[in-house]
Predict the structure.
Amino acid sequence: MSATEERPTPYFNCSFQSKSEHEHSLHSSYLPTAPQHHADIDRFSLRLGSVAPNFKAETTTGPIDFHEFIGDKWVVLFSHPEDYTPVCTTELGAFAKLEPEFTKRGVKLIGLSANTVESHGGWINDIDEISGSKLSFPIIGDKDRKIAYAYDMLDHQDTTNVDAKGIAFTIRSVFIIDPKKTIRLILSYPASTGRNTAEVLRVVDSLQTGDKHKITTPINWIPGEDVIVHPAVKNEEAKTLFPEFRIVKPYLRFTPLPKEKTSAAV
């Protein structure tokens, strides 16, 4: 492949197909179908900046084509190990309660585990009862783990996170994907540790603010706090863009953002 050629977008069709449809599914041969094939995944390991693999799947809100689902929005795709389990129940409830804040920022939530859609549907009732939420975002049924393999959501070395047959459950993965279908964040948590939904939202704020303005965000940053002038911005340009910026070191320049610039939702 030459430097000028675009790398094709991986496509993983997890629905049932006719032979002709299967033969024409882009890169369908790339998809590993069993744990013993997981060595093949390394050739297509996802990294920051990778195009999020497309797929078709059943969800609790109906069938989806993932790239069509993304549309022109940001997406948080996250997996959990198993339905009807304690940590996962608290996580899904927390995401459901925080969903309005994600929606304000143009972000869609979508969950996934190696369970059926029917299992998800029953479990949602428990989640809402326990957390006081009203979960409405889709949860993907990935019983055959095809999407989980495509997104490297399985940890074959964690012997505490397997089903009765010894097959790995999904770990607690988080992918933040932008409207260009580009992966902007990848997080992986062990089965024993619940995630921090506020941190996921904070990263969305950081990414969206950074995309809109020539800045980066420091440790523990939250909207409204000072940001860092991007290293690529020279001081002369910074004076125009950020009149109140201050130089701590030649490589470290802080600046407040005008109030209207501090929230990506505006």
